[in-house]
């Protein structure tokens, strides 16, 4: 089993994608859309209900794109007494349409846009993935030791710690060892970030890694790098 999952924020059609009526009726917890029309939730997104905030990648107000078999459904995340709840926004026939429009929504509202192209795959963050100067299309995971052990190899490369935006970035000869060190001693700069996530990229080309590292620091200005 490979440690790293391939990023899935690339463009290109998913085979067989078209609109479908894969919905169930909204229950008493169902929210209403902006125009007062009751919306229905895709079955594929019901797993978001009643999950504690500290176990999720998402933050309140974030947008999430997930496969809806076929096509893609979009929800917006809201905080509830039980944890997080999704409100259905719309659905799209193709990945290109969904990722383009949700990316623009996230930019306008100043929130994250989480997306996975295939069922069972990891989530990337579209605003970072599609940045014109410092793109980061890699998968994100909760910053805990189990995820570090599962998804990070003993290999050189670059890593990002943050919440879908970089708060600290670095390069290393051993990604798993370095991320495990940061997890055991995150420092005061990272303590108040929730949810705290990580992402990494295996890259044996040190010069290429340093170029990307400098671009991300320049364009994203991770706050914890300035105090190292």
Notes on the protein architecture:
The chain has 228 residues and is an alpha+beta fold. It folds into two domains: 23-126, no CATH class; 141-227, GIY-YIG endonuclease, CATH 3.40.1440. Helices cover 22% and strands 24% of the residues. The protein is built from five helices and eleven strands. It has helices at residues 95-109, 126-129, 145-151, 175-184, 206-220, and strands spanning 23-24, 41-42, 63-67, 72-80, 83-92, 113-115, 124-125, 141-142, 157-162, 166-172, 197-202. The strands form three sheets. It has a five-stranded mixed β-sheet with strand order 5-4-3-6-7. The chain has a four-stranded antiparallel β-sheet with strand order 8-11-9-10, with helices on both faces. A two-stranded antiparallel sheet has the order 1-2. A hairpin with a 2-residue loop joins strand 4 and strand 5 (83-92). The longest helix is centred in the middle third of the chain and has 15 residues, at 95-109. The two termini are 35 Å apart. The relative contact order is 0.15. Residues 12-54 have low confidence and may be disordered.
